[in-house]
Amino acid sequence: MDRLEAIQNRHSVRQYTSRPIEGKVLERIKEEVDACNREGKLHIQLVTDEPKAFDSFMAHYGKFTGVCNYIALIGKQSPDLDERLGYYGQRLVITAQQLGLNTCWVAMSFGKRGVRRLTQKGEKLRCVIALGYGKTQGIAHKSRPMGGLYEADGPLPAWFLKGMESAMLAPTAVNQQKFRFYLSGDQVKLQSTGGFYSKVDLGIVKYQFEVGAGLENFHWA
C-alpha cells in the first residue's frame, strides 16, 4: 500500500501477538529509523524483543498486552524537539503500517525508568511507539467535523481538502484534535489550540497533511 492508503488503514493497537519482527521487515524499519534520525537530527531508537518497558502497572492500566517492541522517541533538547519527534515518529508509524505492522503512540503507559537508559546527556525521551503484529487491526477513532478545524480566506482547493481528510485521521492525545489550519492562497499555517502533548500532535498532524495534500501544492506559512 502507498502512504495515503496506510494512513487510511492505520488504527491504534494495544494488544499484540508473540510474532517477532524479523527479516526484511526489520531491516526496512531500521533503515527508516536511520533516515529519520539523519533528516530530523534526532536519536530515535528501535528496541526489539524487550518486554520490560510494557510490563508495568501503567502499561497494564493502559490495557497494553504482548508489547515486546517499541520505538523510543529521543532527541537533544530544543524548542522544536516535540514537533520534530511527532513528525518523524508518525512517518515511522506509517512505514510500519505499509510493512504489515501495527502501532500505538504511548505517552504515559510504559515504564519510563528503563527506557530513559537509552538517552544520552542533553537528550530527552518524549514518548514511545508500541510496535508489532497486532491481535486486531484496531478501530477508527471519532473525528470532529472538518469545518471546526480550519479557516480559509477563499474557496477550498482539492489538495487542501485531501490534506484535511488525511490530517483528521492523525492520532492525537486523547483524540482531542486540538489543532487548526489556516489557508491563504497556497500558504498553509498550522497551530495548536492547547492540550496535552500539543507540540507532538502538531508534528503528527503536519506529516499526515503533507501526505494528503502533496508538498508540491502548497507552502507552510
From TrEMBL:
Q: Which residues form the Putative nitroreductase TM1586 domain?
A: 4-213
Highest taxon, organism lineage: Bacteria
- Residues spanning the membrane: none
Pfam families linked to this entry: TM1586_NiRdase
Signal peptide positions on this chain: none
According to the UniProt entry, its GO molecular function terms are: oxidoreductase activity
Identify the Gene3D superfamilies for this entry.
Answer: NADH Oxidase, putative nitroreductase (tm1586), domain 2
Give the protein name, as stated in the record.
Nitroreductase
Native organism: Solibaculum mannosilyticum
